[in-house]
Every structure is written in C-alpha cells, then in structure tokens.
Write a structure and sequence with these properties.
It is built from 13 helices and 15 strands. With about 375 residues, the chain is α+β, with helices and mostly antiparallel strands. Bound molecules: zinc ion (ZN).
C-alpha cells in the first residue's frame, strides 16, 4: 500500500505533463496553420488591400470630343465642372468638413457623414459640381478634401436636333443618339494620378507621383446643317399646331449622296435637362418604371425608329421616275377596276367601283391602283 501511492502520483504527474505538452503543440499547430493560410492562400488578397490603401489613384477625366455641324457650329461642347472627394486619413476637422460639404453641395448630413467616415483611400462625394461651387469649397482649404476639375457635356442649342444628337450620363457616357453610336471616338481616355502613401494615408514625398495624362476624345463632324434644322423645326411645330398632331417628323436629305441635312422630331426635348418630362406629362405619383417608359418615349427618334408605310407619299417618286425613264407619257391611258393584284394581295383603290379608263395625269390625281392597258 505504501509503495503504491507515490507510484500513482508519478503517473498522474507524467499524464499531466503530456497533456499540457499536447495542448501547447495543438495551439502551435493551429497558429502555424493560420499563418500558412494567411501567407500562402490569402497573400494576394492582403497585398491588394495594402496596395489599395497605400497607392491612391485619382482619375483625370478626358475632354469628350465635340459634335460639329456642316457649317462648323458646335452642337455638343464641354464645360468645366468639379468632382469633390474626401481622403479619410487626411481629414483633420471631420465635423467642419461635413458641415461645409453639406452647405456648399446641398446634400443631407447623413449622406455626407457616411462617406466622410468611411475608411477608404478616396471617396467621391459629388461629381458635375459647378466650377464656382468647386472654387468656393477649395477656398476653405480643408485638409482631406480634394476638388478635381473635369468636364460636363453642354448643348448650346438646348433642344435643337435633340433626338439625333442624344446626351450623356453622369460619367459622361453616351445615353442615346449619336453620343452612343460614336461613343468609342468621342469618349477619349481618362488619365490617372497615382500617389504612394504611408500606413496613415499621408503621401510619401520621395515616392513622387505618377501621372498618366488623359487623351481627349475625337470631334465628330456631321452632315446636319443647323440652319436647315432650325427652319424644319419651325415648320414642324407650325404643322403640329395647325393639325393638332401629337408629333411631326421632317427629314431633309441630299438626294445626290444621301447625307442627312436635317432630322426633326417635334416635340423635341432639352438636352441640357433630359430627365425632365414635359409639363402635364406624368405627375407626382409616378413609379420609376412608368417614368422611364415616358422618358424613353420622349427621347425616341421617330424618323429612324418608327416604320411608315410609303403609300401616297412615295407615288411622286415612282411617277417621276416613270416619266423620266420614258416608261410612261402623260397621255398614256390606264384602266382602274377598283383594285390591283400584286402577287397574292388585292390592293383596293379608294373608289370601290373603280375609276374606269383614265390617262396618266388623272390616275396620279386620283391615286389610282391601275394597270397599263
Ligand atoms: Zn381608281
């Protein structure tokens, strides 16, 4: 009995030591595993996160190409505006920054605070800000607030040729019309300013800044002539008034080469304010979907999007071609039975019984569906 107790005690001690050793090893194994995971498997992710924090990239917007008419008038131009951003780590007086930005930009405190308090390398507050407002903000000389100049699309003739030219969105990208179709040429290439910062987000002076200059977009020269477009627009508006029409379209083309000199679709809309529906359209309780539908209707270019049966408007061309080629003479006689068969279709004359025998002049006057006798 006496011998057994110390022996038992020893075994108990040894067991305890083994358990503790095992636990320590286990903890080390877990830590090693975590380290391998972070260093091997997540290395790319953390490198990227660190780079994002240490290299701050600001883009320099490129001036968009202008749209110029046949007479050299500028139909779509750029005006200088500002983009306001904040750099969280450089802000010294956070409350003052929030107060100034709310006041000058007319934004809610909640909106500004969320962005100012966000831990990111750079946070955009508002773009397309008038240059005067940008200058006012710059005058406060607040640490951490950046005012970058960029460009906004501007249409000197407001609504003239609106559905042809189209307009651009918040990032200066084309939304409809020529602005979309020639986006690739008009947009240019944005430049960048790259600065390296330390862990606190302060720019490292020795690292310098890398600057890639923006490339301006190319100008677009079009066949439309703003003088002809203006006259055609006035005519279309008059016609819409006298005929009480919903819309009137006029297309003026150079028959020698097919160049479009004017393309009018009244009512036009203001390119400098393309998201405002005309008076009396819509109302307050409009759903987003319904509003977009109405906007799409307002922007629609009927001249190229709607089909129109040539019918009587085209008979002048076929009749003139017939006369010019000598296929018909004004004195040729025809018989109108009240219809004509074209393939398997029976196209009726407006006079049910037919006009009977008549010459080319009478047939043209009556819009007859007639056959050469
Ligand atoms: Zn007839």
């Amino acid at each position: 009995m006496m011998d057994e107790t110390p022996h038992q005690h020893k075994t108990y001690h040894r067991n305890k030591t083994v358990t503790v050793m095992f636990l320590i090893l286990l903890v080390f194994a877990v830590l090693m595993g975590r380290l391998v995971y972070l260093m091997v498997f997540r290395s790319e992710y953390y490198t990227m996160r660190a780079k994002q924090l240490h290299e701050r990239e600001r883009s320099i917007k490129a001036a968009r190409g202008r749209i110029i008419d046949a007479g050299g008038k500028i139909l779509a131009d750029n005006k200088t505006v500002c983009t306001i951003s904040v750099i969280h780590s450089q802000i010294e007086d956070q409350e003052k920054v929030i107060a100034v930005l709310c006041k000058e930009l007319g934004l809610s405190e909640e909106y500004v605070r969320k962005r100012v308090e966000k831990y990111s390398s750079i946070e955009k507050i508002k773009s397309n800000v008038d240059k005067s407002v940008g200058d006012a903000i710059r005058a406060y000389d607040l640490a951490g607030v950046k005012v970058d100049e960029d460009y906004k699309r501007y249409y000197p003739y407001d609504s003239l040729g609106s559905k042809v030219l189209g307009f651009t969105g918040g990032d200066n990208q084309g939304i409809i019309g020529l602005e979309v179709i020639y986006e690739e040429y008009l947009q240019g290439e944005a430049g960048t300013i790259l600065t390296v910062t330390d862990a606190k987000g302060v720019e490292v002076a020795e690292a310098g800044e890398e600057r890639v200059e923006p490339v301006e977009g190319k100008d677009l020269y079009i066949s439309m002539d703003m003088n002809i477009q203006s006259y055609a627009t006035q005519l279309a508006l008059q016609t819409m008034e006298t005929k009480q029409a919903d819309s009137v379209s006029i297309l003026v083309m150079n028959p020698q080469n097919g160049e479009i000199l004017a393309m009018v679709n009244v009512p036009e809309f203001n390119l400098n304010d393309p998201y405002t529906l005309p008076d009396g359209v819509g109302g307050d309780g409009l759903s987003e979907e319904k509003k977009q539908e109405l906007l799409n209707g307002m922007w629609r270019n009927g001249c190229i999007n709607d089909t129109y049966e040539p019918g009587s408007t085209f008979k002048i061309i076929t009749a003139a071609a017939g006369l010019e080629s000598g296929s018909v003479k004004p004195t040729d006689t025809f018989n109108c039975p009240g219809y004509i068969m074209v393939e398997d279709r029976r196209i009726r004359c407006h006079k049910v019984g037919g006009h009977g025998t008549e010459d080319f002049v009478q047939g043209t006057m009556n819009s007859c569906k007639q056959k050469v006798m």
